[in-house]
Every structure is written in structure tokens, then in C-alpha cells.
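Problem 12. The chain below contains 167 residues. Write out its predicted structure in C-alpha cell notation.
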Amino acid sequence: MGEEEDPQFTPLDLVCGRESVLSCVSSSTVGVQIKLELLQRKFWMAMQQILNCFLIDNNGFILVSKRPAETGKFFGAVDGSVMTQLINTGMFRRVTMYDYQAMCKVPYHHHSGARPLLSPIYAFLAAVKWLISDFLIFLLEFNMSSFWHSDNLADGEYTRVQPPHST
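Solution.
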């Protein structure tokens, strides 16, 4: 369990019944599993040591490199200028990928009912707001039309009535 296994490489190819890849119905998949160390030895036997040679898969990831740390990395991250030339010649095409799991949602700040408890100023302002609104409701409910319209009021005079004299 503590022993690390050698990485393996599995090249696959799709076997189609027709010539067109777009209308291909997969009848089988052919592949072989090769140890990465064996593939590197065979690859470097045919190459000069002064060159930087890479074996790249169809998605642009490095399968074999002189430096083992580069194996498995995207070729554009290792040598961007060569990857740009490969894109310009049509060997690869640029694909934009988005990592939606890494995107953060915009935080929604909702109003908390405990906010007025933080400072006595909030409690004072809430009391003033309540007094003003209560006073306005009182004025609306109070019949103030009599102050503007005096048509339905009776005018009266105060007269002093003298009691009848008894004789």
C-alpha cells in the first residue's frame, strides 16, 4: 500500500463503421496500456538530447517530456509561444473553459432585526419615527373639516335671560 505504482498511459482509438467522423457510430474502442517509463525510454532513444521534445495528446496535455515535472501539464502553460503557433496552424483550436465551481455568489445582505440593538441611537431614531407616524395618523383620524368649513355650524349668541318677577 505504501509503494507507489508507476504511472501508465492508455492510448485509445475509436473504430467506426463509416468514413465520416461526425456520423460515426462507435462499434468498438481499441487501446493498449503502456507504462509511462517504457514510453519515455522509447521516445528518447529516437530524439537528440539538445532539443526540447514533447509528446502531446489531442487535448494539448504533455504525456512525455525531458523534465518529469512537466508531464501531465497543459502544453500552453509550459511553452505558450509554441502552443500559439500550433493554434494558428490549425493543429489545435482555442477552447474557453469556465470553472463555475470557483465562482462566488454575490452575497445578499438582508436586514437584521437585531441592528437597532447595536446602538442606542437606532433605538432613539426608531422612537422618534414612531411618534411622528402616530401623530400623523391622529391628524388623519381627527375630523378637521370643521376648521375649514363652517357651513354646517349654528351661530348663536349668549343672552342673559332675566328670571320672571313674582308679584
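Discussion. The chain is about 30% helix and 10% strand. Students who got a different answer should revisit the alignment rule from Section 12.3.
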